[in-house]
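Convert to structure. Protein one:
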Amino acid sequence: MPPLGAPLEIVERRGCDQHPLDPAGEDDRLDLLSCVWPDETARFGLLRSALDVAARFPATVEQASIPDWLAANLTPLRPGTVTVVMNSYAWQYLSTDDDATAQQLLHDAGAAASSDAPLAHLSFEALDADYNNTQLRLTLWPGGEERLLALAGPHLGPVRWFG
C-alpha cells in the first residue's frame, strides 16, 4: 500500500485531451456516463462521484495532442516542485510516431531534471491487448529509475500493490 499519509501540496493541475469534456456540463457528463456498460452500476456510481469532484475542483484541460502539449508545457521544470506527468489509458491511442515523440520529450525533460526540480511520470496503462492487466508505473528523474507500483484490472477492482 502506498504511503497515503505523506504530506503533499498540489501547486497546479493542467492537462490535455484532443476533445476535452467539461465534467460540470450536463451534456458532457451524460456523454461520459453513457460509456459505462448498463449492468455495471458500481462503476456508474464511481464515475458519477468522480465527475462531481472534478466539477468542484476544475483543472485546466487544453485541446491538444499529448506530444504537442508536452512540447509546449513540460519544460522548463519548476524549481522547488516535483513535476508529475500522469496518464491513464491514453498512451494506447497514440500513433507509433506520437508515442515515440512523447517518450522522447519525457526523456529529454528527465535529462534536465535535478534534485531541486525533479520529474515523475506516473502511468496507468494496459499490459496486453485484452486489457486484462493494467500496470501503475512510476519513473523518477533525475536518474530515470522506473518502478512497478501496482497491478490492477482494467476497471480497477482488486489492486495488487508492490513495496
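Protein two, convert as well:
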Amino acid sequence: MLIYSPSKDRPVEFGPFPLETLARDEAVVAKEAARPPLSVKTAQGESGPLAAALDKYRELYARFASGDVAPQKAPVPDELEPRAADIKAFAYFMDASQVGICKI
C-alpha cells in the first residue's frame, strides 16, 4: 500500500506548504495601511560587487521603463482569482517555495 501526503490533492498554485491554514488578522492589514510610505533610497555612487550588479540590471531594464504601450492586452484572465492562481503556479514552476498575492 502506498502512502500519499495530504497535499496530494491540493491545487498546484497553493504550493507545497499549507499557508492558507494560517490565521489572518485584518487589524495588522489596517495598521500597515495607515503607516506613511517610506522614502526610496538610491544606490547612486555606491561601489562594490553588489552595486555593480545592480547597475548592470538597472541599465538592462531601464529601456522598458518608458516607451510605447503594447498594442494588445496581455493574455491574462480578467477575474482576479484565476489571475492570482496563474501567477502563483508560474512562481512555483520557477522554483519559488512560497508565493503570496495581495491587494495593492
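The chain is about 35% helix and 0% strand. The radius of gyration is 20 Å.
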